[in-house]
Amino acid sequence: MFDPVNEPLFRLDVAGLPDAFEVLAFTGNEAISEPFVFEVDLLINDPSLDLASLLYRAAFLHFDASGNGIHGQFHQIEQREHGHASRLCRVRMGPKLACLGQRFSQRIFSARSVPQILRQVLKEHGIVGKDWRVQLSADYPVRDFCTQYRESDLQFFQRLCAEEGLHYHFEHSRRGHCLIVSDAQAPSETAEELVFHDHGDPVLLSRFEVQMGVQKVPVTEGSTELATLRSGQLMPLSAEPFNQRNRLWRLIEVEHRGTQEPEFSYANTIRAIPCEAPLITPQRLAKPRMLSLQRAWVVDVEELRPEPSRPIAVQFDWLYQGEGAKSDHCWLALA
Description:
Helix content is 7%, strand content 42%. By secondary structure, it is mainly β. Strands 1-2-3-6-5-4 form a six-stranded antiparallel barrel. A three-stranded mixed beta sheet has the order 8-11-10, with no helix packed on it. It has a three-stranded antiparallel beta sheet with strand order 18-19-20, with no helix packed on it. Residues 200-204 have low confidence and may be disordered. This is Type VI secretion protein.
């Protein structure tokens, strides 16, 4: 157990374990509408600990002594060296959302809006309650039907978000991480103000460059040592030599890195766009195509036809979702 007085800046608290792991180094990336990924090198001093038992456990990675850090799950663990008293391991951490990439589904959602579909997909993976929330200011119409075909639940989730112009990011605390799904008009958390400085002040912005992005939106890049910055936040900037840059920016990507050799140090690279600029929507994922004839059955359903031009309700063979699952259908027009 660490001495509270000499507790290291970098450590990893793991659910169900009494003691934190010592962190030697870490790198991580978080960006708008992407599951974050962190790789952490750590020492495990318990020779009897089963590493496989750590998979999918919740953990909090401390960036500093003030409680700043990220919360995620163990998605991969690799033992690199084994000494007499400790093991050097590398773990990969990510959000619960990343687990949606492990399941492929084929189904049709009838008469539901995209927010309703997203809610169901997340619920199937245990992402409910305080694990996520929506911040939507627009209305999203009900779709007659929406098909998931030969794509993972994560690909399907991201495709629907891109089609509707939705984006997501994460909020972190020691108790958990929360998935935030928003549209362009939704409010965002405001980060601590950054003061430009080019002489190495440890908490200030030391580099700030502006380039035009692919959508003709100015994209800025800078380097800081401020451990509170997270993707999705609004970031005030002041004291920059070019006065027009002293404004409110939206962080779209943060690359984190930390090491304790030769001494403890944390830094990040940030990318941001003006807060009033439209959020850069990820490129739409192509819908999987059906390259052959598909067999379907005409079914009798207890609902009214959505419109006269599509009078036939059918259910495709590939809609089977397992015993006890609800069958779904779509309405088609006659040739």
